[in-house]
Design goal:
By secondary structure, the protein is mainly α. Helix 3 packs across helix 7, helix 3 packs parallel to helix 9 and helix 11 packs parallel to helix 17. The N terminus is likely disordered.
């Protein structure tokens, strides 16, 4: 009799959890789309700054993404730690960790900045960028190193409302700043990056404000060994995915004529929106899986997230590859029109990476770090392949697609093995 009475309660709790997941995911997806719309609107200024400057802007974004890889691990480790908090002692330890990491990331940024200053001539010559653009990018790196600390706390506490508003405010601030700098002050690639810096500062400010209950109190001393045992695999695991996701523009910039890169950058921006659009589902799933592991509870969040992401990614890939080009031909010239032939294979590659992102989030949320060396191996092999196979822009995309499928297969295997052992 008790079992019959408890079963509806368990089912109702599961249904409520699903409803909450979809409500939070829907809000984060809306926020992501709204922020993405503002950020995409920045690219309307591509004709105003010219193909060469627009290609330079794409390279600066790629450099920023690579330099920000440590920040990815930071956000996820703070999300992991915050989601697993069940006692006051753990909460104080989280506060102490935030204090220590903010200090050390600042010191690491200073050391990195010194290295860039020493090698700036080589960097500027190799990538053909200006010193001002490099300076703005370096400042952006500091913001992107600090922002994950505060946003990891928000994510772990499942404060998705303010994460969404911060994303929208960042995109809006970036667009307004870029419009003023480019149209009124005649800025080019450097001006767009300066606008991005201002937008990120808005997001950072919101993150600092909304997480003040954690970092604004006295905390315990950080246990570096235990913390690093999590941050290292999380950093390398998510870093391998970020490398696959964003490194190709740097290779294209090096091996192809600078006037050819505008179309590739434009196609990449449109198709990478697949990951940015569906990424909130994995972001919402991550702390829920961590929490379920900490509480020794079963959850079907992976199945719900994977199916939802696969459907959305598939539909979005079809739209970008075969429907969006009609609008691009009507309303755009320059880079976006030139990149239309690259959209189908690019969209297919990004769709694969999108579902792979869900599997990686689930594995790392559960502490299944055995997958990390394999992710790193695939990312390294991908870089070596790009060094050899770059006869055309299409070949670069096909190489991305092949290694994306390989990474997805590895994640499927480790997910299956993890599920089999837990069963």
């Amino acid at each position: 009799m008790n079992m019959l009475e408890e079963r509806p309660s368990a089912e109702s709790q599961e249904q409520a959890a699903k409803q909450k997941f979809f409500r939070q995911s829907s809000w984060m997806m809306f926020a992501s789309v709204a922020a993405g719309a503002f950020m995409f609107a920045v690219h309307f200024f591509s004709e105003a700054i010219g193909d060469a400057a627009y290609g330079q802007f794409g390279i600066l974004l790629s450099i920023l993404a690579i330099l920000s890889i440590p920040g990815l691990g930071l956000q996820m480790v703070f999300a992991h730690q915050a989601a697993a908090v069940t006692t006051d002692e753990q909460r104080q330890r989280l506060t102490g960790t935030a204090h220590a990491v903010l200090l050390w990331t600042f010191l690491i940024w200073l050391a990195t900045t010194l290295g860039i200053w020493i090698w700036q001539r080589l960097i500027l010559h190799s990538l053909e960028i200006s010193g001002a653009a490099l300076l703005v990018t370096v400042l952006l790196v500091l913001v992107t190193l600090w922002k994950p600390v505060f946003y990891g706390i928000l994510q772990g506490n499942q404060n998705f409302l303010w994460m969404g508003w911060a994303s929208i405010a960042s995109g809006m601030g970036r667009f307004v700043a870029v419009a003023a700098i480019v149209l009124l002050l005649g800025g080019r690639a450097t001006g767009i990056m300066a606008g991005a810096l201002l937008g990120e500062l808005v997001a950072l400010t919101i993150g600092i404000w909304r997480s003040r209950e954690v970092w604004g109190r006295k905390g315990d001393q950080i246990e570096w060994r235990a913390w690093l045992s999590k941050v290292v695999p999380l950093t390398f695991g998510f870093g391998a995915f970020q490398f696959m996701f964003m490194v190709d523009p740097m290779f294209v910039r090096i091996f192809f004529d600078k006037n050819q890169t505008g179309g590739y950058i434009a196609a990449g921006i449109l198709t990478r929106a697949l990951v940015l659009f569906t990424g909130p589902l994995a972001a919402v799933m991550f702390p829920k899986v961590v929490r379920s592991v900490a509480m020794a509870q079963k959850t079907n969040m992976l199945k719900v997230t994977f199916v939802s992401t696969a459907i959305l990614a598939g539909l979005a890939a079809i739209f970008i590859a075969y429907i969006l080009p009609f609008g691009l031909r009507l309303f755009f010239k320059g880079p976006f029109a030139a990149g239309i032939p690259l959209l189908p294979p690019f969209a297919a590659s990004m769709a694969v990476l999108t579902v792979t992102n869900v599997l990686i989030n689930n594995l790392l949320a559960r502490g299944k770090f055995q997958v990390v060396p394999w992710l790193m191996l695939i990312a390294g092999a991908y870089a070596l392949a790009l060094l050899k196979y770059h006869a055309s822009l299409e070949q670069v995309i096909y190489t991305l697609g092949a290694f994306s499928v390989l990474m997805a297969c590895v994640c499927v295997f480790f997910t299956w093995r993890s599920e089999a052992r837990e069963a």
